[in-house]
Specification:
heterotrimer, A mainly alpha (about 300), B alpha/beta (about 450), C mainly alpha (about 325), A: about 300 residues, mainly alpha, globular, C: about 325 residues, MetI-like fold, two-stranded antiparallel ribbon, about 0% strand, flat, ABC_transporter_permease (chain C), transmembrane helix (chain C), cell membrane (chain C), transport (chain C), membrane (chain C)
């Protein structure tokens, strides 16, 4: 838990380099009243933020009959809901599809976007400004603006009904990722690369041996963004895969239709909701640093 | 960074190139249209073989019924393999056909797509097959015959029909001292008010009948038979604003809802469980009478076998008692998709599903839907549950109505329903005519937008 | 954040250009030019195929009647005429989207800033609190929506039950046309963690000596906030507003899923499009209407016209933004 804290303070400290950083202890004693007030507000807010998850959890272990009744605490802990979910929907397939979408999209994006971002950040060439401008515009415009011709295009390639229309374009770069990576490359001091060049290293070798190792945190953060964006994506799969059998859906699409399509009760639905929330939280604790650095460095959300 | 003038010309150049590509691509797509002029063999093939795909929207229990009939078809034609795609709604179906995703036979949920699919050629014209194989279209229920063709083009066959009537809970009615179900809208209203009970805080506990527009099956189309209200004239123009039947229904519905209280109804409706779940309001006795389709009989058997209930045609307006006995008819429809690779086999399957008496009876029994060919009505194998009998009669009644096919699909019904849902919450009734006129204009504008120029 | 407003850290010289032009150098330059083209060419191709071409094609389709099954037919301005004079839903959809832009963007930022301000002081529990407020932003939105629609169920949902304890009769939330959008706003506030973290990082970035100097000069708390904190936060706020507006213009998922789940209707056979906007079109957003016209009603020509209008509005905003704020492109060159 405290790692998030430390990460933020470290990044802050690093950026405030040059100014004397006071030690962590409070310089002046806060008036006790203010201290109490702040804590009361914080705790109250935290309770509000945690409450939804608590209620979702409690409902997920209730009997079907008990959800949406007057009692908020389960009479009987029905852990079987978590098994039942897998009977009602092809959940394993959904997670598998989401994983395939997110992993491939991320891998493809890295292959195409890291080189492009490096070139845009560190090499001067004709047209660089125009390309970068186009990337910014592509990144900022709502995707719905270009949805229709894209859809028609994939129709003609007979790839609708699959997740490929969402995965393949990443082989040809992702505007948002290129933007993020370029911003990151700009922060890497150029001296090391220059030194390698003077030693006679070719440009590709410079990138591979010198720049990439230094860019790891930025690359990790960008990959994380795209991974989560793909994992959470609802609009794309709705557009491209909704007509295939449910077993081909990613989890975001599947769970959106889950309750209606199978006339499923709330307890089972909340069990599914927990199952979808938990991996994200677990992943967060493993990869906190990349998350927070990503968000604070770029200030953009996925 | 600034956009330099030179960069601007380059953007323009790129745009021109891309524009040229657009036209090239769209020209590619215009190969074969509709398949209206397709040549077909002079006689139906004597031996069928190959693979054919069947797309339908059913799921779970109902999908199994379809599978049973498909199995029969495969047994009769051992060299044929039917690949079934279940759970495909209209939106997905359309996407799949457009993408050429191997759709041969498609069953759609509603008649609403007929106009659009016939017009765009998404479904092939069946006339030549029907004529060649001498399929007797006169066997079809008249309404079902109407809703499967558009502009004189028959591109679909009815796959069973749905009819709507009134369900009533016998125990609740007798407890309130009502000995017969209502036959007019006024009776429905007064009975409903009698049947409604309240909690101590004033909220509704059980409702006699929920008049809230948008509740479960409460939609304009399902009420039209009560006054014989019409949707479109012969030119496909909206007559919602000029048909007095609609005004009568709107005024009845609104004053009924206001008598119970708009806010109370809203709250009651919002707290209703899913229509198709086992907590359905009628099945748990939360409403005493309900407008619903014939399929509810099967749901009752499955989910609420203990409830003692009856079924009758939906009441009519007091000045339209001659219409009593009719109801709203709609149904599932099937067609052969554009781009089907084996249209003969597709037709054979479609013909089996829609014109073979034993198959239709088996589907009707299994899905508890109304059959659409007269030979099936006469078949001794058709299971005639007394609750279900009501709906068989409604299907054959001359006063039964359907919603006409339109290039705008269900757009005209949705536009009207949307307006009605808003209207029921606005106090006062002063400018009803003007508002309905606007709905007419809106429907006509949308229809012309969706018509192929 | 500094990386957004400066093209490169001060003191780092730009790549070779301008150096002494020896033979070796110019050869190196040509080599690097070739490498650069090699490196960007996939991305360039991607831009042309997946962005420039579709943009032009959208404009073309917007002048046609196109149903995906038969080829497009030219109809001139008919789609635009319908859009601007006859389509009742587009007005409602545009209004709803505007509502999200006007309310969701600033309220989220204000809430995020308020929470971030509470979390700047170093104390033992800060890490726990920061994690609690940040995590909801990571939860898949569809899952969050399911949770919220359940919590705010008008009948016996936990929220209305708790309100009742305090004698408050809760509204119908996602089931009431007046409350559906505010309900979505509550959800968006719950998911504000990303904005909060950015602002928090910027707050921690404010050089403390500025505060100390101000204190020595006798500045009061609010003066410090006005003259030191707010100016230092400006780039972050601009950035949050920009990304917030862009996100609001494409707001789709949360509203779509909430409508589908709250309506409680099984949309068997009809498709997603039929369930959007519930209740009474109050949550129908502009991109959703585009989706309905394009992929439920198969009016791809008309949907393209809707896309062109969205392009003009969003594009106008982007151009305005690129000119005025210099966020994204930086102040270099």
């Amino acid at each position: 838990m405290t790692q998030l804290d430390a990460t933020l303070d470290v990044t802050a400290g690093a950026r405030a380099a040059g100014t004397p950083q006071p030690a962590r202890e409070r310089r002046r004693r806060q008036p006790v009243l203010l201290w109490v007030a702040e804590h009361v507000v914080l705790v109250a807010l935290a309770v509000l933020f945690v409450a939804p998850v608590v209620f979702v959890f409690l409902t997920s272990v209730m009997n079907n009959d008990q959800a949406l009744t007057s009692s908020l605490w389960p009479d009987h802990w029905a852990w079987s809901n978590y098994v039942h979910v897998f009977d009602v929907a092809p959940l394993a397939a959904w997670f598998g599809n989401s994983a395939m979408y997110a992993v491939l999209a991320t891998a493809f994006m890295l292959v195409s976007s890291v080189p492009a971002a490096y070139a845009l950040a560190r090499i001067e060439f004709r047209g660089a400004n125009l390309i970068f401008l186009a990337i910014i515009v592509a990144m900022l415009l709502p995707p719905q603006v270009v949805t229709i011709p894209q859809y028609v295009m994939w129709t003609k390639l007979h790839l609708t009904g699959t997740l490929w229309p969402l995965i393949l374009p990443n082989l040809l770069g992702d505007a948002f990722s290129i933007f993020l990576l370029r911003q990151f490359f700009l922060t890497i001091p150029n001296e090391y690369a220059e030194a390698a060049r003077i030693d006679g290293a070719g440009e590709l070798r410079v990138i591979w041996k010198v720049v990439l190792p230094m860019a790891k945190p930025g690359i990790a953060a960008t990959a994380m963004f795209l991974f989560f964006h793909s994992w959470n994506d609802y609009y794309g799969p709705l557009l491209y895969t909704s007509e295939s059998d449910p077993a081909h859906w990613p989890v975001a699409l599947g769970m959106a239709t889950f309750k209606g399509a199978h006339s499923v009760d709330w307890s089972t639905t909340m069990a599914l909701t927990m199952l979808v929330m938990v991996p994200v939280v677990v992943l967060f604790f493993f990869a906190q640093r990349a998350f927070v650095e990503g968000v604070t460095l770029t200030g953009v959300k996925g | 960074m600034r956009i330099t003038p030179r960069a601007r010309t380059r953007v323009a150049a790129v745009a021109v190139v891309a524009g040229a590509a657009t036209f090239a691509l769209s020209a590619c797509g215009s190969g074969s249209d509709g398949g209206a002029d397709q040549k077909i063999a002079s006689a139906a093939p004597t031996h069928l073989s190959g693979t054919v795909s069947l797309w339908h929207f059913f799921s779970d229990r109902e999908a199994k019924v379809i599978q049973g009939v498909v199995d029969d078809f495969e047994k009769a034609n051992p060299d044929v393999k039917v690949v079934v795609h279940s759970g495909q709604d209209d939106e997905k179906l359309r996407k799949a056909i457009a993408a050429g995703n191997d759709v041969d036979v498609a069953i759609s949920y509603s008649t609403d797509i007929v106009g659009n699919f016939c017009q765009s050629g998404a479904f092939q014209d069946l006339a030549k097959y029907i004529a060649r194989d001498k399929v007797d279209i006169g066997q079809l229920l008249p309404t079902a015959r109407n809703y499967t063709e558009f502009d004189g083009k028959r591109c679909a066959m009815p796959v069973l029909a749905d009819t709507y009537g009134l369900y009533y809970n016998k125990a609740l009615l007798s407890k309130a001292g009502i000995d017969a179900p209502p036959k007019t809208l006024d009776e429905l209203e007064s009975d409903a008010l009698k049947l409604t009970t309240y909690n101590s805080d004033g909220s509704i506990k059980t409702l006699g009948f929920n008049p809230w527009m948008g509740y479960q099956e409460m939609a304009p189309a399902h009420l039209a038979s009560a006054t014989g209200a019409k949707w479109l004239d012969d030119d496909g123009k909206s007559v919602v604003g000029s048909d007095p039947g609609w005004k009568e229904l709107i005024e009845w519905q609104k004053s009924f809802a206001e008598k119970i209280g708009i806010d109370k109804l809203k709250k009651f409706t919002a707290a209703s469980a899913d229509e198709f779940s086992a907590q359905n309001d009628f099945e748990i006795g939360r409403v005493a009478m309900n407008l619903d389709g014939e399929w509810r009989v099967a749901f009752m058997k499955d989910q609420a076998p203990k409830v003692d209930y009856g079924t009758v045609p939906f009441p009519t307006a007091a000045d339209h008692t001659d219409l009593y006995g009719g109801g709203y008819i709609t149904g599932n429809i099937g067609g052969i998709a554009k781009g089907s690779k084996n249209p003969e086999l597709a037709w054979a399957l479609l013909k089996y599903l829609t014109a073979d008496t034993s198959a239709v009876v088996k589907l009707a029994n299994g899905l508890q839907n109304v059959p659409t060919i007269s030979s099936a009505f006469d078949s001794p194998d058709l299971v005639r549950d007394p609750h279900f009998e009501t709906f068989l009669k409604i299907a054959q009644d001359k006063n039964s109505l359907t919603t006409p096919p339109s290039p705008n699909g269900a757009g005209y019904q949705l536009a009207f329903a949307d307006w009605w849902q808003k209207y029921q919450t606005t106090p006062g009734t002063s400018d009803l005519d003007a508002q309905l006129k606007k709905v007419d204009d809106q429907i006509n504008a949308a229809a012309s937008l969706n018509s192929v120029p | 954040m500094t990386t957004l407003t400066e093209t490169r850290p001060a003191g780092v010289p730009r790549t070779p250009a301008g150096g002494p032009a020896t033979r070796r150098r110019s050869g190196l330059r040509r080599h690097r030019q070739r490498v650069a083209l090699l490196l960007v060419s996939p991305a360039l191709l991607g831009l042309l195929i997946f962005f420039v071409y579709p943009l032009v094609a959208t404009v073309f389709y917007s002048f046609t009647h196109y149903d995906l099954v038969s080829s497009p037919r030219w109809v001139g301005l008919a789609n635009y005429k319908y859009l601007f004079t006859q389509d009742p839903s587009v007005v409602q959809a545009a209004r709803n989207t505007l509502w999200f832009v006007v309310f969701m963007v600033p309220i989220r930022i204000v809430c995020a800033a308020a929470v971030a301000a509470l979390l700047t002081r170093p104390r033992r529990t800060t890490g726990v609190f920061r994690t609690i407020f940040y995590l909801p932003a990571l939860v898949p939105p569809v899952a969050s929506v399911l949770a919220f629609v359940y919590l705010f169920n008008p009948g016996l949902g936990p929220v209305n039950r708790i309100l009742k304890v305090f004698g408050i009769e809760g509204p119908l939330w996602f089931n009431d046309p007046h409350w559906a959008k505010p309900s979505l706003l509550l959800l968006a506030i719950w998911m504000m963690g990303d904005v909060m973290i950015i602002i928090l990082a910027a707050l921690l970035d404010v050089p403390r000596d500025q505060y100390e100097a101000a204190s020595i000069d006798g500045a009061k708390g609010y003066q410090k906030a006005w003259f030191i904190t707010i100016p230092n936060l400006r780039p972050v706020i601009v950035f949050s507003v920009v990304t917030g507006v862009i996100a609001a213009l494409q707001y789709f998922t949360e509203a779509a899923v909430a409508a589908g789940v709250a309506s409680g209707k099984a949309l068997v056979g009809e498709g997603t499009g039929a369930g959007l906007g519930y209740p009474e079109g109050s949550t129908l957003t502009y991109p959703q209407w585009l989706y309905v016209e394009g992929f439920s009603n198969y009016a791809l020509g008309y949907a393209s016209a809707l896309a062109v209008v969205l392009f003009v509005v969003a594009g106008g905003f982007v151009v305005f933004l690129l000119r005025r704020t210099k966020a994204f492109t930086g102040s270099g060159s």
